[in-house]
Design goal:
alpha/beta; 7 strands; Rossmann fold; binds S-adenosylmethionine; 22% strand
Length: 203
């Protein structure tokens, strides 16, 4: 099966079987919040355009509004149609849109100030490593200011690993990102098994 088919099958099962935040594979709202807090550090999102790749229920947009951020436009994309259906049911701020879209395989011209990716690269398939690098590269092409993303890390404790998760080597990912920009920041302090990378077009 192709990567996207495996992802769709997996999330459809979680949507059917798990309550609340569990449909996205999170153990708790707290761990999602901790990750979002990192993503918001990319820069001031007021009056900016944001592309949220792998938006799930669109919780990042909800949190942005709760923080008082007045973005110019937010587009949440996901390859799982049921996720987008769920996201569309929430009462969002204006200038907010959700779409089933694969940024690696779409004809529309995409250009946004910031591209954020919270967790869309962590599900393990035989193609995860390859797809993740393609997503990072594409996100950086789309971004006018910068890209921020998180990933699960090989530095985490082995006993807390799950079979469905891919664990990335942060050094390998940073080396890959450095082929696109040297304006990089990295944080591995906020959770034991997770890291965030900030990529900027300008220093
Ligand atoms: C762990 S969930 C996180 C959802 C949301 N970003 C959040 O933090 O609340 C990952 C999401 O990424 C989506 N996803 C996985 N692979 C993707 C891809 N290649 N392109 C877009 N979305 C993807 C999944 O369907 C899922 O909704």
């Amino acid at each position: 099966m192709a990567h996207n088919e495996l992802v769709i099958e997996n999330y459809n099962t979680w949507i059917k079987e798990n309550p609340g935040i569990g449909i996205m594979g999170y153990g708790s709202e707290k761990s999602q919040d901790i990750r979002f807090n990192m993503l918001f550090k990319i820069g001031d999102m007021n009056e900016r355009t944001i592309l949220d790749v792998g938006c799930g229920r669109g919780d990042f947009a909800v949190k942005a509004v709760q923080r008082g951020i007045k973005y110019r436009k937010y587009l949440g994309t996901d390859i799982v149609p049921k996720m987008i259906e769920i996201a569309k049911k929430t009462n969002f701020a204006k200038n907010t849109e959700f779409k089933v879209l694969d940024i690696l395989n779409c004809s529309e011209k995409l250009s946004f100030d910031y591209v954020v990716m919270c967790g869309p690269m962590n599900l393990k398939t035989p193609h995860t490593e390859d797809i993740a690098k393609k997503l990072i590269k594409r996100a950086f092409e789309i971004a006018k200011i910068g890209v921020v993303f998180n990933m699960t890390s090989v530095f985490g404790d082995v006993e807390y690993r799950t079979d469905h998760t891919h664990y990335f080597d942060p050094f390998d990912i940073l080396r890959f990102c450095s082929t696109m920009t040297r304006n990089l920041a990295f944080d591995h302090t906020y959770l034991p098994h997770d890291f965030t990378v900030f990529m900027y077009k300008k220093s």
